[in-house]
Amino acid sequence: MLIEKLLRSCPDISMIYLMIRSQKDKCLENRLDEMLENPLYDRVKKEVPNFRKKIVPIMGDSNIKDLGLSESDKNMLISKVSIIFHIAANMKFYEKIKTAIIVNIDATATILKLAKHMPNLKSFIHVSTIYSNCHVKHIKERLYSYPINHKYLMMLARNLPENVFEEKIPKITSQWPNTYTFTKAIAEGLFKNECGDLPIGIFRPAIIISSASEPFVGWIDNIYGSTGIAKSLSLGVVRFLRCNGNYMANIVPVDFTANALIASAWDVHNQHGKILIVYLKTDLCFRRIKDVLVYNFVPPIDGPTWNEYIYALLDINKMYPLRNAIYLPLMTFFKHEIPYRFCVWFGHLLPALFLDAASICIGRSPRMWKLYMKVDKFCKALEPFCNTEWSFSTDNIQSMWDNLNEKDQQLFRFNMMEFNWTEYLINHYQGMRLYLLNENDSMLKDSRMKYARFYWMHQIIKTILFFIIFWIIWSMFRGMFE
Predict the structure, then answer these.
(1) Which of 23, 255, 413, 475 yields a CA-CA distance of 20 to 30 A from 457?
(2) Which residues form the Fatty acyl-CoA reductase C-terminal domain (predicted)?
(3) Distance CA 376, CA 380 (A)
(4) Burial status of residue 384 (CB atoms within 10 A of its CB: 0-12, 13-18, 19 or more)
(5) Starting from the edge strand earliest in sequence, which strands make up the sheet with 200-205, in order?
(6) Which of 180, 206, 220, 191 is nearest to 84 (CA)?
């Protein structure tokens, strides 16, 4: 989305250097061409026909020492690059800590080292996450201190045997729910200690979901975070979630995020090296601003809660059900672990066992247990973010918006005050239905018939369960009435 917006709305860009991992059976050019075949780029193909000439693929890999860059590519980047967007990260919540450190911290240190040699560098934006400091209840737009230095952590990761390192690290990471948020936090600490006088900004987005308007409404291509829950819910797979429905969902549109990201590069360049005038009792003091600028990009206070987000999707699903649904979409939130685990066992896992047993009996391969184990792992990973509420400072984001002229505010819209959440969630569902699940309106007739069957099946099951529970209670207390 960032590449598409830069190509379409920033005509003065002469070249975009894109680091791409190599694959045995595909060269870099082929991988880039495959990426550009995505419908996301249809609009830029019409508006900027020669855009392909502006993209230069660079072979590199965040898992390899020094990014695996060749000397010639390093020298080219050093001499020609003026703006860096560092977005690459390992986003697996349950990734092994050593792997997460290599990609999220060590690779970031390599890029920072490279940036220090760039004579034309105007702006370096490191994309973090709003949850990198989730151990703090009110997250300000500043850098925090952490229990371990990035250099010491990387030294331990390199020198200690993996089993010894895995034993020692939980004491340090205990304030973070997973290796992703921990390593992103330590990467922020890296900039605090190593940035020098570079024009650096740290951009912390909330949970990114589908586009609001650009390049078209509802575009999305992944199932990270809340989108994974929304997809599983709409297919009737997930019916229970450990979540406080009254807490903010912290979702933001991907196109607004890309716009704010581009604007932050402009803002860092403008703010870097400004003179701060301080009046002291004795004299006038001039101080050059060298602090790293931090941008918390989160929804405003009128953003949807988890209740509003999930139940809006359920309402839309009634009109636009999915043909590939396996059951009637439902959702029950639980604040406490015990009732939640009870319902997961009897509502998710036990039915999965019965269905797999039936599949084996008729000669089909079992798949439901495996599916629900993945779903259970995914839901556990999201629990910390659904059961905690944070508040955020957004002064830098707001100031950046105010400093844009009217033309740029229209071109790079990211201000979410007076945002139409009702319309957006409808488009979010429709985009997910089209781009993730490949379902369109031609399938609606069959989908609605299937939804009606699921509905009546659900009513029958509810009635049967009611009579079973009534019979059990009657059996237990029958003696009192005889």
Answers:
(1) 475
(2) 348-439
(3) 6
(4) middle
(5) 83-86, 123-127, 200-205, 293-297
(6) 191
